[in-house]
Amino acid sequence: MKFLVRLLRRNEGKGYWVLNARIYSFLLWGLTNPKVLSPELTLSQMLRIGVQALPMASLVALSVGFILAMQASTELGKLGADSFIPDLVSLSLMRELGPLLIAIIVVGRSGSAVTAEIGTMKVNEEIEALRVMAISPVRYLVVPRYLALVIMLPILTIFGNCVGLAGGWAVCAGTLDMPTSFYIKHAVDRPELWDLYSGLIKSVVFAHIIITIACHQGLNVEDGAQGVGRATTNSVVFSILWIIISDAILTGLFFFVS
Amino acid sequence: MKNPPKKTSDSSDIILEVRDLVQVFNGRAVLNGLNFKVRRGETFIIMGGSGCGKTTLLRILIGAQKPTSGSVRLFGQDITQLDPEALDKIRLRFGMNFQFGALFQSMTVGENIALPLQEHSRVDPSLIEMVVKMKLELVGLTGFENFKPSEISGGMRKRVGLARALALDPELLFSDEPTSGLDPVMTAVVDQLTLDSTRKIGVTAVVVSHDMTSAFRIATRMLMLGSGPRQGEIVAEGTPDEIRNNPDPFLQQFIRGEADGPIPLRLSQDDYLKHLLGDG
């Protein structure tokens, strides 16, 4: 595995796919030598990227659950199908809106911060200093952030799904007098395990997209402060674009698979 | 019986050797066929005016940039031909003090100095803590371990940069403008630190500087890079006394810091006209 790391280092800085390959070579190397993965740095990034995003993710998820239930109650109420509101809220959150909206929140909050941080380090010669100290910037800066987001985004998504369901329950219990036990039974029983898994697979793919684009943009900053601003904008725009495209592809795949 | 021929210089004594080094940017040769050697234990000063290619040369010497042509032999190996893995092994043998410190802003002073030790040594964290304190004492910053780089002055940051560069006890120290922007007292302090590192610890130093007072204070050998019509070539090389007594007007103007002389500040009248008319 060290051979693969060496081989890829010769092409350092030569593009997005090389960065991806380098991340994976370090992850594979880390299987036999955990020190390569810098567990302490990964934990601190999990705290910064994941745990500190909880309040914002919760607020968005709660609002989405609320909106879904309100919109559904208007239309389904006309058909006398109010009892399907918990099913709709639950399925929409697990399959689609949970992973997608939490990912978009993380792009704006953490993806942009990672690009700005790494970009500023590049401008301040900190990346150069790492290289001169024989420390790989990909191993030291990128891999801990990658691991942190790939672990934390699915966790945030599960948490967001639960908070979104609570938002839906608030509407159902408050305006439709739906019993809580009925809401919980339908919201939990209706989705299959695959619905949860498909959402989590999406969130892992989104995490990969967010962090690799953010780090690649940050490591390739040129032209000082203006370059940092440009890279941060690119990071957010490209991440959202590729998240939505990959969501469409994955949804299509899951549609045919299931 | 014949005596074996005496060697004029021991090749193992040469720590850095630059041969026919050329660096071209946009068709302009910033460095043009440089040749020089640095021996173990020397404090070698590279000086020259702004834009003469000092920092470019330093970046090539530390392996941060590939030259257009030529070789840089560091510890006997041509670093321009090495793969990154082999270059990293060489990098563990030298320290680099960046012009503006290049300290990690998110870390404390102590964490900055500890980083190379944590990454490249297997010593106990308590021992690393002790080494950090020793290095901070060496640069006169005892008790500043927990300060962030943004909480200390520019001069202090330069000294922390020096402490970090010396963290792994390197054989060779590269320093980029270590005294620029410092007051005379702080300049003397940083110079004394460089002298302590070279004379007492035995570190070889390659220092890029345009501060003449500082350069003559610490140098054992000096090299002057040309600019303008002599861009990219070595104007003079020698001991501080040889440099002082060198009659080259270009060199003398630089040493004395005179406004009038062969170092061109502006274009000639013909070149200026060409530039204005878009021919140059």
Structure description:
The complex is a heterodimer of chains A (258) and B (280). By secondary structure, chain A is an all-alpha fold. Chain A folds into 2 domains: 1-37, no CATH class; 49-257, no CATH class. Helices cover 84% and strands 0% of the residues of chain A. Chain A has 10 helices and no strands. Chain A has helices spanning 2-9, 16-32, 39-50, 54-78, 85-123, 126-132, 137-175, 180-189, 193-219, 224-257. Chain A is elongated. Chain A starts with a helix and ends with a helix. By secondary structure, chain B is an alpha/beta fold. Chain B has a domain at 23-93 and 173-178 and 205-263: 3-Layer(aba) Sandwich (Rossmann fold), CATH 3.40.50.300. Helices cover 36% and strands 22% of the residues of chain B. Chain B has helices at residues 54-61, 84-91, 109-120, 125-138, 154-165, 184-200, 212-218, 240-245, 249-256, 269-277; strands spanning 14-25, 28-39, 43-47, 69-74, 77-78, 94-97, 172-176, 204-208, 221-225, 234-238. In chain B, the strands form 2 sheets. A 6-stranded mixed sheet of chain B has the order 6-7-8-3-9-10, with helices on both faces. In chain B, strand 4 (69-74) and strand 5 form a beta hairpin. The chains are: A mainly alpha (258), B alpha/beta (280). Chain A binds chain B through residues 6, 9-10, 12, 117, 120-121, 124-126, 128-129, 131-135, 140, and chain B through 62-64, 83-85, 88-89, 91-92, 96, 98, 100, 102-106, 115-116, 119-120.
